[in-house]
Amino acid sequence: MGKNVLVTGGAGFIGSHLVDHLLNDGHTVSVIDNLSTGRMANLEHLKGNPRFKFIKADITDFEQIHPYFEGQAIVFHLAALADIVPSIVNPRGYYAVNVLGTMNVLEASRLAGVGRFVYTASGSCYGIPSKEHYPTSETAPISMQYPYALTKYLGECTALHWAGVYHLPVVSLRLFNVYGLRSRTSGTYGAVFGVFLGQKLNGKPFTVVGDGEQTRDFTYVSDVAEAFVAAGYSSVDQEIFNVGTGKPQSVNKLVSLLGGEKVHIPKRPGEPACTWADIRKIQSQLGWQPKVSFEEGVQKILKHIEYWREAPVWTPESIQDATKDWFKYLVN
């Protein structure tokens, strides 16, 4: 039977796909989002749905958000600040949202007697794993390289602490390199897909970092939404799961699938040569499996490439300027 479910950050990239999935499953879904990075356009198709409610609110304001947690069976916490560069420039902002904001959401959930809490963690907490830790399991060493990774990990620690002390059932999902429709099209220099798609639409060469042989565990957004649902519907508690494909793909392969010329820009400190999720735990305990191959995912994006028409067009020169603090602080 349908339940009352709340999604923080539900107007965002991943959150909006999760909202669609939950509504399709028959639940009544409330979304809390301050629209700082989320977009109402991602939820436009839900207007008039009697089982959907949007609340414009900020998770850093406990008094503003806590009334909306009453009667919620599951809380999916996706609201966060993302990307490496702005976290280096604005660490206070990242702490406020990703750590203190997460604590507010947890405390509101605890006081309301929420039945389950699913936290959105990041595979960036593993930093630059050594070769013996590929594929990277949930027990691999933690080594955060920049404030975004640190604050997401501290949020995870806070969620698991609330689970242990206050008996709030918590599951944490460490996401690897999510891509797909509705990903962010504006703002600071960030994920490779947004950068490349803006360049392709404007006939510019793809700016490939280093030699392009670095690999990423690209995971399609619909698969990630299904991982959230599997965690939310499960009975597991105080567990951490990697969410990836277990099949890393090179940046050069992405360029080949998108089609176009490329230029190379300097390799950056703090970035791993490979992200590779060991997903055996989530497969065995939650029965989750990624379904969309990398080739299929890229083709889905190319069919809807006009969505990225508003994306910034990054050049080697503008990237150099945007990432100057990255090199300033992260070079050993």
**What is the beta-strand fraction?**
15-25%
Low-confidence stretches: none
Q: Mind describing the biggest β-sheet?
A: 7 strands, parallel
Work out the helix count: 12
CATH topology of the largest domain: Rossmann fold
What's the structural domain tally?
A: 2
Q: How many strands appear in the DSSP assignment?
A: 13
Structure description:
The protein has 332 residues and is of the alpha/beta class. The protein folds into 2 domains: 4-178 and 220-243, Rossmann fold, CATH 3.40.50; 180-216 and 246-275 and 292-330, UDP-galactose 4-epimerase, domain 1 (Alpha-Beta Complex). Helices cover 38% and strands 16% of the residues. The chain is built from 12 helices and 13 strands. A 7-stranded parallel sheet has the order 3-2-1-4-5-6-11, sandwiched between helices. The chain has a two-stranded parallel sheet with strand order 7-10. The longest helix has 22 residues, at 91-112. The N and C termini lie far apart (55 Å). The model has no long low-confidence stretch (mean pLDDT 96).
List the keywords.
332 residues, Rossmann fold, UDP-galactose 4-epimerase, domain 1, 2 domains, two-stranded parallel ribbon, 13 strands, globular
Quick description:
By secondary structure, the protein is an alpha/beta fold.
Topology:
Blueprint: E1 4-8, H1 13-24, E2 28-33, E3 52-56, H2 62-65, E4 74-77, H3 84-89, H4 91-112, E5 116-122, H5 147-166, E6 170-175, E7 178-179, H6 192-201, E8 206-209, E9 215-216, E10 219-220, H7 221-233, E11 239-243, E12 249-250, H8 251-258, E13 262-265, H9 280-286, H10 294-303, H11 316-322, H12 324-330
Parallel strand pairs: 1-2, 1-4, 2-3, 4-5, 5-6, 6-11, 7-10, 8-13
Antiparallel strand pairs: 9-12
